[in-house]
Write a structure and sequence with these properties.
The complex is a heterodimer of chains A (349) and B (85). Chain A is mainly α and 349 residues long. Chain A contains 20 helices and no strands. The chains are: A mainly alpha (349), B mainly alpha (85).
Chain lengths: 349, 85
Amino acid sequence: MPVLRLPKFGKPVKYAYITGRVRAMKTKLIPNEMYARMLNMDIPEIARYLEETQYKEEIDALAKDYSGAELIEHATFANLAKTYRKLLEVSIDEPQFLILEYLRRWDIWNIKTILRGKFYGASDSEIMKYIVPAGELDMEFLEGLAKKDSINDVIAAFEGTDFAEALSKYDGKFLASVENALDKLYYFRMERAVGGTLSVGGGLLLKYVRREIDIRNLITLFRMNKAGIEASIVQENLIPGGKLGEELSRMAGQPYADFVRGLEGYPFWSAISDVATADLDGVSRIEARLKAYLIRYAWSLSNYHPLSILPVLGYIVTKETEVANIRKIVRGKEAGLPNELIEEQMVVA
Amino acid sequence: MAITDAGVMYGLLAVGAGLATGLAGIGAGVGEQGIGAAVVGVVAEEPGFLGKGLFLMLLPETLIIFGLAVSLILMFAWSPFAALL
């Protein structure tokens, strides 16, 4: 277990460079007003607009192989991976350690993508389109996994690693239990690696991550309670380690109306109070609002701790959301969805 | 021990003057290390920020001027040799 024991004096200085840098990088993100304008553009126009932003390099490089929605999807993912890798490269010591711990979620994402791809029989080039090599597992290793013949071969490749136990949950029929176990593993590993350190920075990371777990659990609760699923099954799908773990676990399986009423008074309630209604399509809107709340939470925490890991986390989640929003717009446009429907899904903090 | 020798007094004065500038310098340095690192970080992304960044970086430097002023006052306000001149 890696344990960081750094002297207290001068520690915030370790964060000065990286926080200064991410705050400058934040100004280059796409402003919220632009999403409304992008909704009124067609796909080539969006690609042209993205060429004026930080995505220029990727769009230019990939324009000869892809076009339209595919081009934007590839370019955004390539840019996301590049940005995250850059954060790791320009940081040292404690910030780098904590950023890597947080970015391990992309390892989970990549493993899930490969498993899903193999499950549905997608080709390796198809799978590689959705890979974001931002975590510890590098492109070569992931490419090797994508080239394997079956899911069992992929699972065998992780023999002896932390992932082995979670992957052994695969029963040959459904991926849900494996994916759930992988998510739990990600948070468990983070708690184990960061919780063991005595650093203030690690404590702040965990503080944010606990809230993130709560929000993810809350989204699970909204979906499952809405569908009227049994309490025990819902509880299995909740990720342990959140700040409100106990309370949220008690809400599992409650009738939807009671569940929503029970949420009043929680800090996130004001973010969803006007959309938490009984109608069916309300859940996707609530999800978007909760994710936006999480971004605002990261940035507001970073106002209290300006020289800490929190501005970096804020940037990481904001960037991820930006890419997700662009992809939602492009995918929605391609499928011919009405603008209102796309707008509902978008996360605008 | 009573300090009666004017030379010793003047020597202590000089030590005080040195501490005034020296400690102010160390303080400014501690302040500047974070600002400097942050400015370099921002300039790496936004080269146009260099001017503003340098200005912010030099702000703690002004504290040394206070230290220097105190040193100068200490050194020149009183001199045991004034009577000899």
